[in-house]
Amino acid sequence: MFKGFPQGKVRLTSVPEPFFRELLAQIDHLGELKVSLYAFWRLSLKEGNFRYLLRGDFTGDARFMQGLGQTPQEAEVSLNEALERAVARGTLLKASAALQAGEEILYFLNSPRGQAALRAISRGEWRPSALPEQPIEILEEAPNIFRLYEEHIGPLTPLIADALRDAETEYPARWIEDAFRIAVENNARSWRYVQAILERWQEKGRDEQEDRRDTEKARRKYAEWENLGSG
Predict the structure, then answer these.
(1) Residue 107 bridge partners (DSSP)
(2) Cβ neighbours of 126 (radius 10 Å)
(3) Alpha-carbon torsion 35, 39, 45, 46, what sign?
(4) How does pLDDT run across 48-97, given as a tens digit for each residue?
(5) Strand 126-131 and strand 134-138: pairing?
(6) Residue 228 pLDDT > 60, yes or no?
(7) CB 85, CB 17: distance < 8 Å
(8) Listed residues 81, 107, 138: the one ending a domain
(9) Among 114, 112, 113, 76, which Cα is nearest to 92's?
């Protein structure tokens, strides 16, 4: 019997809402459900711009594997089927990389980042890594802030171009790209909104798990600017 969740601070794992709204009702295989939920948890423990799982991330967890079969052989077969089902359903994305030690299979969450990772791998934009838990490093071209602005907000003006140049030297490229993405997701297509997010991260430090709260503060700051008539 499970003894219950402990008191005090417990680490939480973020699960995308579409999983509950769409995928959960479709999944009719227990192994697939276990693998999908386990993948959310293990990916949350990874670091880097492109997070992925190896087969060893699943098989290396003895307790998890015990829940897939009564024998190691049965568990391996169940894992294979569950992973295939999760990939076929579109929960996970599967890619392979040819290394000196042999072919390595990688599993990504089917998200914009995961899709971008698959495209990069297919173009050969990766290199071997010295880390056994992360055998390949996916290369990524730094986003151009002017392109991001034109794609997500609108035509450039000389005044905005100056502000973008200043921001490009002040903030990390990944922050800028993520701030534009958040602005689009919140239907706040304004440089003021993007700038409010960046200033918040610079002031308080960035924790990806707190991005949602940061966007709320950015929304309030943006509203204050609008009320003051600052554009």
Answers:
(1) 53, 94
(2) 20
(3) positive
(4) 879 999 999 999 999 999 999 999 999 999 999 999 999 999 999 999 99
(5) antiparallel
(6) no
(7) no
(8) 138
(9) 114
Tell me, yes or no, whether 104 and 151 share the same domain.
no
pLDDT of residue 204: 84
Residue 224 pLDDT more than 60? no
| Spatial contact of 41 and 13, defined as CB atoms under 8 Å apart | yes
Split into its structural domains, the chain has a count of 2
Buried b (16+ CB within 10 A) or exposed e, 75-109: bbebbeebbebbbeeebbbbbebeeeeeebebbbb
Q: Are residues 103 and 181 in the same domain?
A: no
Same domain (yes/no): 23, 130: yes
The answer to whether position 9 is within a domain reads no
* Domain of residue 52, residue span: 17-138
Residues 106 and 158 in one domain: no
Percent of the chain with pLDDT over 70: 88
Please report where in the chains the tokens 């056994």 appear, as a residue: 132
- What is the mean pLDDT of the segment spanning 139-147? 77
The CATH number of whichever domain residue 185 belongs to comes to: 1.10.10
In angstroms, the first-to-last Cα distance of the chain is: 59
| pLDDT of res. 225 | 45
More confident residue, 206 or 110: 110
